[in-house]
Structures are given as C-alpha cells and as structure tokens.
Protein 1
Amino acid sequence: MLDIKVMASGSRGNCYLVGDGKSRLLLDAGISYPKIQEGCQWQAADVDGCLITHCHKDHSLSVNELSRRGVKVYGPPDLQRQGLLAIPIKPMQKVPLGTFDATPFKAVHDVECYGYHIRSLVTGETLIYLTDSAEVCYTFKNIDYWLIEANHSVEILDRKVAEGLDPTRANRTIATHMGLEKLEKYFSGLDCSMAREIYLIHLSDDNSDEEEFKRRIQRVTGAAVTVA
Ligand SMILES: [Zn+2]
Ligand SMILES: [Zn+2]
C-alpha cells in the first residue's frame, strides 16, 4: 500500500508526500521549506524526487530550496522560464524516481500545468495527481489512488454571484479549476472499482462544502473518499 501524507492543500499551499516503503516522492512544494522538513521528519533532502504541477507559488514556493539541497525537482518547462530550478520534462515523458516512475500529462489551467500518473514498482500500485485543472483530459484505467482537485461547486458559485460576487471572477474559477459537478461527471463514466482511496484536494474555502463533496464523490465512485 502507498503511504500518502497531505502536508498542505488549497490556495495557501500544496504539498503531498507519497511513499511505497522504499522511496518517497514530494508532489508540489508550495509551502515553506521548514514546513516540508517537518512533514518529512526532517529528511526532506533525502526524498527520491519532487514533481511540480505549475509555477504558481502555492505549488512552487520551495522549488529552489529543495533543488539547492540536491533534490531532483521536475516540472513543465515554464518553471525554468520563471527562474525556478526545476528539470523540464515533456508530457508523456516517463521519469524514474527511486522505485517510482512518473508520467506527466497536460492539465488545463491559466499557465502551463501538468498532472502526473505515478506507479510504484514495489507495490505495483498507481496514483493520479491532478490539481489546478479545469478538465481531466484522459480516461485513466486501473488507478489505485487519486489525488484530484475538487475546488468549487458551480451551484455555490452561482449562489455567490446572485449575492454579489463578480461573475468574471466566478467564470475565471470555473475555467481554471476543477469543480465538483465536472469531477462527478468524470468519475461516473469511469470504472473506479479498484480505487483504494480518492483524496479531494485544493478545495476553495469559500466555494466548497467538504461533507457534500465527500458524499457525492463517494456515491458516484463507491470508493473511500478523504477530503484533504
Ligand atoms: Zn493552486
Ligand atoms: Zn494555479
């Protein structure tokens, strides 16, 4: 079984630690280095790699610090253009990280952004990591773990607009982040019978409802759902 630890999730920072008993991976590094250190039991520099989704600070804050300490940090070429010390990789380019391999795929955001298909050679299990993406552009089969964005619900946003929220802002959120309704639709067309656990991540403080999100995704997938 994979060991998944949520260090931070949401617009204030994102960082996850995934282990398979032999290797450990960081998914995004959008919190301070001391916080990453704490989450890694003071052995952050010993992780087998770090995968970054995109350049926004809530995902990339500690890229340079990790890199300087010898951690191999990978991500879309845009990171380098933004002055971040990350190794650029292309979509569908498989990267070995200890006993894991990771394959990036395109996400839909307002900057170049990747999701990752991750496989452990130790447990044989697979994980999808996708955040800050308005769409899931691929049909993934036989996935054991999902760390996937459920940022807002369109229903809540509509209500907020009726109460005075700028509709341009609401539309921007819908165009750049994954909403509950879309995710529900995606999962309803997918066989999730082998999913061990689905983590709903990057929930918006204002435009989400933890309990409802959990219940609805559980209903449509039949899987164990955790809200990060
Ligand atoms: Zn974000
Ligand atoms: Zn973002």
Protein 2
Amino acid sequence: MVIHHPKTPLEAVMLKKEKEDALYLAGGTEDLRLNGPMGENTELIDINGLVPSTIEKGEDGKLKIGALVTLQELVESDLVPEYLKSACRFCASFEKRNAATIGGNVGARRDDSYLIAALAAAGVSFMSITPHGEELKKVSEYANSDCKRLIEYFIIDPATKGYVHRFGITANTHAAVIAAKVGDSYALSVKGSALVCGDTPDIYKKVEYKDTLEGSAEYKKYLASTVFTLKEAK
Ligand SMILES: Cc1cc2nc3c(=O)[nH]c(=O)nc-3n(C[C@H](O)[C@H](O)[C@H](O)COP(=O)(O)OP(=O)(O)OC[C@H]3O[C@@H](n4cnc5c(N)ncnc54)[C@H](O)[C@@H]3O)c2cc1C
C-alpha cells in the first residue's frame, strides 16, 4: 500500500488531482474498512496534521470545526449544537466515533452519511483548499459532486436548533433514510439516491427512490414522506 505524507494542504490537493484513484486519509475508518473504497492500486494521502483538529468559537459567535475533529469530540463538546451531536451518535460504536472525523464523514459522501443531512439542512459551509486557493463550499452542493478539494474546517452557527432521524434495521446496519430539519430547512439522505434539500417537508417528492438491501423504493418513500409531518404533529 502506498501512503503519501505531503507537507502542505496544497501538496495534498495536487496529489489527489494527479492520482485519479487516490483517497485522503483522515481517521481511516472508511478508507481502511473491510470491502471499503480501496482498490488494488489506490494510494492514500495522509492529511493528519495538515488541517485543523480543534473546535473554536470566533468573535462572530460561529464555530470553526476542524475537519480532523472526531465524532466523539463533537459529542463531548459543550459548544456543538444538539442536532449535530445526535447525528454523530448514529455512529453507534465508540471506537469508530473516536477515530472517524467530521471531514472524513462528509468527504466520503456516502448516501447513508451520519452527518451530511444534518449539516446540509443547517446550511453549513466549509472552507476548503483547491488547486486555485481557499474556497467556501456548501455541504449540500459538495455532497452530490465528485470534486477533489480538501476540507479544512466547517463553519457552524451554534444557536441553530433542529432534529435528525435515522431509519435502519439496527444501529449497526446501513440507514435506509436519514431526515434532518434544522431551522426552517429540510434534508433527506436516502440509501441509493442523491441528497435532497429544501424549505418544505415535501422535499421527499424530489428523491429518485431505488430498491436496495436496506429497503424497497416504496418503503423508503413512505418513511421520507411521513417523517417530518409526524414529528411536527407531535
Ligand atoms: C463497519 C462500518 C460501518 C460504517 N457505517 C457507516 C454509515 O452507516 N454511515 C457513514 O456515514 N459512515 C459509515 N462508515 C464509514 C466511516 O466510519 C465514517 O464515514 C467516517 O466518518 C469516516 O471518517 P474518517 O475520518 O475515518 O475518514 P477516512 O476513512 O479517513 O476517509 C473517508 C473519505 O473521506 C475523504 N476525506 C477524509 N478527510 C477529508 C477532508 N478533510 N477533505 C476531503 N475529503 C476527505 C477521503 O478521501 C475518503 O474518501 C462505516 C465504517 C465501518 C468500519
């Protein structure tokens, strides 16, 4: 296995651009898992030490959460809003939460991502390094793209309130649907489909449902069509 140890974030991004198949290595829980994304020739680009690993509150009251902050550090922080902590708890194993990073979870762009629906509903953006310099990007736009930028830190309003629901057969099987409402915005991660976001609960109509091992298209559509209205009827 080839692991590169670039000296700067820009060097990491240029390596990723140059090597079509390469992956950034943060916590490694996705990259190195059994039947994970690594092919026979995949090279790893170690980003540990290159992007922030701290949670800081700026003068504007916003949180700057480093891409290398782990899901467990988010759960334990007094600064992080509750909706994001509850999304981190979808990762049921303490051991995995302790290694998996927020940048790695978003960077993996999984359709059952623990965090993407929550961050997208919250309208969260992150600062990233691209070959052309630093650039802000919305999580909701990034999730459905395949761009190779390196996530540096997320900018999060700690005052925002919301909720996140996950539907899966068990805590350790892949989710069929993850639904988030934060502030006045909604987002749905549906297994087998692209992320959808919007300002009304009927965003479920925008999803292209597919039959997967986690459930039939009909089943997932039923969950997505009822989750927000049932929650708000309480
Ligand atoms: C048994 C098992 C079950 C799992 N189930 C789920 C699940 O249901 N839902 C889920 O979301 N995850 C799941 N995962 C995957 C994983 O644990 C998480 O997605 C985790 O948050 C990835 O974080 P990491 O730091 O370990 O990322 P890594 O494994 O280091 O990297 C993952 C990906 O993110 C990219 N990346 C990493 N850091 C950055 C960055 N700063 N900027 C841009 N790209 C970056 C890498 O290129 C790579 O493609 C599972 C893992 C295991 C082992």
